[in-house]
Predict the structure of Branched-chain amino acid ABC transporter permease.
Amino acid sequence: MDAIILQILNGLDKGSAYALIALGLTLIFGTLGVVNFAHGALFMIGAFCAVTLSRILNFSFETIDPTKTDFLGNPAKIKTTYVEHWFGADFGATIIDWAVPLAILFSIPIMILFGFIVERGLIKHFYKRPHADQILVTYGLAIVLQEIIKAFYGANPIPTPAPDVFKGSFDFGTLLGFEPNAIIYPYWRLVYFAFSALIISGVFAFLRFTTFGMVVRAGMADRETVGLLGLNIDKRFTFMFGLAAAVAGVAGVMYAPINSPNYHMGMDFLVLSFVVVVVGGMGSLPGAVLAGFLLGILESFASMNEVKSLIPGIDQIIIYVVAIIILLTRPRGLMGRKGVMED
């Protein structure tokens, strides 16, 4: 039982990342009708926003401390970060320690602006083009962004630690009546799951309970009718592209301590997230979230040694096997709508 609970927690952790990226993908497809293969790159850029802010906060200058000497007997040179110099040693150190959560505020305007630029400068020219053209151009954009990140940050993963207060693990077993240390789970992964649930709930609440969101949902269902009512649905859809970019960005920011950012992490998540979108149903936001968590849990159970000993390599293909089964039995996915990508 403890192994099962641990795998469910692992699955919710993976599913959180899948669901957030798939949610952004579905927002873009549902509003603009664009199959965006550059969405994984937005996740990657978000992760590197955390790396960038961490480096900015660690900018330092050297001062000479006459009370100390180095091994040659010369006055010692002390490095002091500008943040500690401006805000004091204790508060400055706290700011540096909380670089990843602070990077959320840093990344949101960057990702929204980047989303606007990509949509206005590139994507809008492919609205009425075949989906194959959209895939090719957005995949090419993803490769360009990946190579830019590689050129500036290098090819090696960059460790980006979580705040000290969230380091270590939580003993789940004691809460559920198990022996101590039976179910140990990292604090930050629990934070990531809670953060994902908050973002997903916020997006659904925005679409359901705000006038802006209601117009967007109406436009997703019947764009022409909404336009005939005199509403500028195109501007709203452009904003939704920026919102989808921001969702992918903050997902990447918070994932940085879990998986050290590297230039190919966007591609690693992109294919899996598209499988999630297809399984959930193209254009279905609830389907994307449901499929994200479902496939995350299945992948987690497939990675157990007991399962891999019976079916070697099943952890590498389980998501695709499930996708094939679901699409053979439900061609529109779990919650797909009639007519979406059927023309």
Observations:
- The radius of gyration is 23 Å.
